[in-house]
Amino acid sequence: MVQAIDQRLSKGFSEHVEEEKRSRSLVISGLSEPSASASRSEKLNDLETKVDAVLDILKVECRPVEAYRMGNVVDGRP
């Protein structure tokens, strides 16, 4: 019984953390991809630079905690 209660609390806490994280998330679409030959660090720097530029335009005075690309690279699309 204690184990069942512990599992419920853990699940509830996990869901709360995920909900909180999503409430602070921002999705930016349409950023161009770096060149396919770019190194991992160059790709990360490219993404951070582009996200910072968008936040500067929006006059957001904070830095992102995380930034990552979602989806797959498709030729001819940003």
UniProtKB/TrEMBL annotation:
Residues 1-44 are annotated as: Disordered. It comes from the Eukaryota. Residues 13-23 have a biased composition (Basic and acidic residues). This is Uncharacterized protein.
